[in-house]
Amino acid sequence: MTLTTFFGCAFTAYGPSLAIFFGSIAPNAQLVILMVSSRAESGLNMVAMHPKSRFNRSGYAFAAGLGFGLMFGIISYITQLVDSLGPGVIMCESCKTVSLYFISGFTNRSWLRIAWVVITHYGASYLTILNSSPTINYGCAYQIIGNVALLIASTIIVFADMRQLHQKLS
């Protein structure tokens, strides 16, 4: 599960950049060098077959921009990728038991917990259909109100269960 989470997070974060890289930059060696080190533009102009071509400037800007974007993405998302190599579930640091609510439903054979998690996830997803509905006026407002209501109800239910668990353990 941890490898699945890791690769899922990695492909979500870096998939578009890698697709752009392999699709348009990798076939041109000069652009690969420029992407790695954007300061190499003057040297690339000296050895390029058509250094004054108007097509070189936009290609160089594209490669340099992708290089800087990739560096920013690596710096920004590396901590989340490292966290995904942990126990297989990305936990909420302040309340570690909340992330395992669904799994505890299976271990305790609490079918109401399992049903609540599945119903609220589907309900929140289906409420977003109201955004693009041509027949319902203010569908966006109804969707937001419905999702906030589901969030409040879920929070109340989870914290009530946590309080009962805490009372059992005390």
TrEMBL record:
GO biological process, one term: protein processing
Annotated compartments: Membrane
Predominant localisation class: membrane
Membrane topology of this protein: Multi-pass membrane protein
Transmembrane segments: 60-79, 110-129, 141-160
Any one GO CC term of the record: membrane
Keywords attached to this entry: Membrane, Notch signaling pathway, Transmembrane, Transmembrane helix
Protein's UniProt keywords contain Transmembrane: yes
Highest taxon above the source species: Eukaryota
A family per Pfam: Aph-1
Recorded family membership: Belongs to the APH-1 family.
Annotated protein name in UniProt: Gamma secretase complex protein
